[in-house]
Amino acid sequence: MTNSCLICIVDDDPDVLESTAALLESAGHSTLTYTSPSAFLESDVQECGCLIVDLRMPEMNGLMLQQHLSQRVPDLPCIFISGEGELRVAVEAMKHGAVDFLEKPFAEDDLLTAVQRALERRQAAQEGQAIQCHAAKRISTLSPREQEVLAAVAEGAPSKVIADKFGISRRTVEIHRTNIMRKVGVRNLAELVRLAHQAGSAAGSAPVKM
């Protein structure tokens, strides 16, 4: 799957664009090249599976481009190409989520390895989003009170604490819990807590105490 993703390259140096695209295409990747960040931003950035971008460009530097993209495609992995003496900026890019940075001139194998790592990261993020959406859909079948009870269970609250919190009996809490497990299709509390965390409905990861 990873080799079929589109690699986008942004650099104001046509020679770098051409050589980088040729290398990636020889390894089986599809590429699109852009001579400026604005040209890339005007494209369908959602189709991009990995972005390779020069840190230093006259119109907008790579770090600024990364910040723009964080709102539109937050899971897009970026690889930065930096010149000598740009380590500080490259480190800043890594802090903002860049997968890697390569200093010019870089070895071909280093770029291919970085791209593979970036694509694997994108794939993992997309799979995680799919799991989260599926879990959230299952939880959406619950009533508002059942969702409240589930959140408390996932935070590790005992039945007595949940009962006191919502002004109901412990027996009612247990009935809610049984109905929740039946509705979302889980067999035990461990699966229920895992589902809640996958959906992002749990505030923490404390163990369940029933």
UniProtKB/TrEMBL annotation:
- Give the molecular function GO annotations: DNA binding
Q: Name one Pfam family in it.
A: GerE
Family matches, as PROSITE patterns: HTH_LUXR_1, HTH_LUXR_2, RESPONSE_REGULATORY
All copies of domain Response regulatory, residue ranges: 6-119
For the HTH luxR-type domain, which residue ranges apply? 135-200
SUPFAM superfamilies in alphabetical order: CheY-like
Q: Which UniProt keywords apply?
A: DNA-binding, Phosphoprotein, Transcription, Transcription regulation
Which InterPro entries does this UniProt record tie to the protein? Answer: CheY-like_superfamily, Sig_transdc_resp-reg_receiver, Tscrpt_reg_LuxR_C, WH-like_DNA-bd_sf
Q: Does the keyword Isomerase apply?
A: no
**GO biological process assignments:** phosphorelay signal transduction system; regulation of DNA-templated transcription
| Modified residues annotated as 4-aspartylphosphate in this record | 54
> By its UniProt entry, which PANTHER family does this protein fall under?
DNA-BINDING TRANSCRIPTIONAL ACTIVATOR DEVR_DOSR
Q: Mind telling me what this protein is named? A: Two component transcriptional regulator, LuxR family
